[in-house]
Write a structure and sequence with these properties.
Blueprint: H1 2-20, H2 27-44, H3 55-67, E1 80-84, H4 92-98, E2 103-108, H5 111-124, E3 129-133, H6 136-139, E4 149-154, H7 160-167, E5 171-182, H8 186-198, E6 201-210, E7 217-225, H9 239-242
Parallel strand pairs: 1-2, 1-4, 2-3, 4-5
Antiparallel strand pairs: 5-7, 6-7
Helix pairs in contact: 1-3, 2-5, 3-4, 7-8
């Protein structure tokens, strides 16, 4: 009973934080987030999906964090999104729950995580969303994925210069890549400017904030695709992380 009351209060806090972002969940969406949470905790017992498993913490540090993109992007204006290095499905699945009209692709290199994501998609009854198993360097060369998406998102921990090489090739000209970074990423963002330019992008906004109810500083780095990415990018597997593009 006490656990239920605690989770009910946590759920109210989650609803409140989303309201601050202009997001209002219906009952079905609330239920989907709870189902997602339960699957995350259940599968986390047998594979490493997240170090965060408390109900309120998952709501804040995974779900609210994923949806904080609304601070810099009107997601109703987006039709297609690809989430690179999606891991346990962040931010792609929370975005899909809140914006069911989105066409979403989740890419991850670990097949165990893909199996988890497929189970989440099935259990939550999500449509127009699919997973792909493999490396961004390979899929970005394929015609059916290259420069096809309005938006690319990534919460992956790679350096921004490296991430830009993975992500910008998927984005249409005039589309955007938005990277979720920690609050103290100024130097990393400055260092990535050259790579972003080479890859056809331009950093247009860096939104710094504190994730509500936590001590986590956050930066959303908004990169606009201003011209086509040269065909030689991304370079072959491993190179973008070993040798990030720099002057």
């Amino acid at each position: 009973m006490e656990k239920e009351q605690r989770e009910s209060r946590s759920g109210e806090k989650f609803t409140e934080e989303l309201a601050n972002l202009g997001i209002e969940l219906n009952e079905h969406q609330k239920e989907q987030f709870d189902q997602y949470y339960e699957l995350l905790v259940e599968w986390n017992k047998v594979m490493n999906l997240t170090g965060i498993t408390e109900y309120e913490e998952v709501n804040l540090k995974h779900f609210t964090d994923s949806l904080s993109i609304e601070r810099v992007k009107d997601m109703h204006q987006v039709q297609s999104v690809i989430d690179i290095g999606t891991g346990a499905g962040f931010p792609g699945i929370p975005l899909k729950i809140v914006y069911p009209e989105l066409e979403v692709v989740l890419l991850d290199s670990l097949n165990k995580r893909i199996k988890f994501l497929d189970e989440v998609i099935r259990t939550l009854g999500l449509e127009k969303i699919r997973t792909i198993h493999g490396r961004a360097e390979d899929f970005a060369k394929k015609k059916e994925y290259r420069e096809c998406f309005d938006l690319c998102v990534s919460r992956a921990v790679a350096n921004l210069a490296t991430l830009s090489e993975y992500c910008l090739p998927f984005v249409k000209v005039e589309g955007e890549f938005i990277s979720y970074k920690s609050g103290d990423s100024d130097e990393e963002i400055r260092d990535a400017e050259f790579a972003v330019k080479v890859l056809g992008g331009k950093i247009t906004d860096v939104d710094k904030f504190q994730l509500p109810g936590t001590d986590m500083g956050r930066s959303l780095v908004k990169i606009k695709k201003v011209k086509n990415t040269a065909g030689k990018y991304p370079r072959k597997a491993g190179l973008p992380s070993k040798e990030p593009l720099k002057k």
